[in-house]
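Obj: model holo form, ligand = guanosine-5'-monophosphate.
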Amino acid sequence: MEYISEIRALLASPKDIIITSHRNPDGDALGASLALYHYLIQSGHQVQILFPSDYPDFFDWMPDIKRILDFDNSPDECKVIAERAQIAFYLDFNSIDRIDKLGELLDTLNMRKIMIDHHLYPEPAAEFIISDTTASSTCEMIFDFICALGDRKAINRTIGDCLYTGIVTDTGSFKYSTSPKLFRIVSELLELGVDDYELQDLIANNLNEKQLRLLGHCLDNRMEILPEFKTGIISLTKEDYATFDIQRGDTEGIVNYLLKLREIQVAAFFMEQPTIVKMSFRSKGDFSVHELARKHFKGGGHKNASGGSSFQSLSATLKRFKGLLPEYANELNH
Ligand code: 5GP
Ligand code: MN
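Output (holo structure tokens):
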């Protein structure tokens, strides 16, 4: 692994370390951060996880998640901790704007910065960039990272629970980006005592009634299918946000339901938020939503799962998106 001997030397004596990951952290961002946190604490370092924004409540069960601080809620505390840190780990994101104001702060601070990430086209935001765009998840990379440091034996059940969570989240429960190597890692985690049934249950069966009704509303009233472009769209308006009292995490996973349609290759989910329209894109097979998100919606991510945003109104954004589809018609219909 690139830079590993330099990083091993850096971690050879106790350090003051911060770990951060992207806004609206998902299971991979949380799993990777908490796994690395537990590993570094065990190794004698002082460690604090700082996120740009809070995490969804349904991850409350993750080991030590309540110790995480976020910049939205505790900017002053985050600043003090960041200012004294010697090392920062940037996990599961590839450009500094993914961590908002926390990124602006960290950019001004002089510390050793290590990025570990699996998104396409990492930006030079850290001194050491460990990028593996073939990895299923950042959690898979954290497993590899600890092994590369020569510490495979330090991976215990707690770390395993965290890593398994990110792997399950980012592979959609072993549907995408799997590999023989990933299954070998997972079997090692199960041997450590990770309870796959229990964790899959905590991760997948976590909706409350309101969230399931919101899904019903999306599918019944907010879904549009464009068969000529093999594209499905779901859009949520500001009024939907008010009616369903939509909170952080409530819309997680809805986009994936469009992929259940056999003929659909592209799924697009538009969320009308107070100042922006946030988008989630998914695709099947060769079609790259990454290119679409990057080129037209200031976004990025992976080939089959990307996100972006727009400062136009919801209707203007939808119109623009639909207007782009003819450009991709050949690719979608080949
Ligand atoms: P989701 O649709 O689940 O929010 O995100 C799908 C993937 O795209 C994730 O890997 C996420 O990190 C990435 N992503 C989501 N929104 C953005 C964005 O606005 N910019 C970039 N660069 N990546 C994004
Ligand atoms: Mn990830």
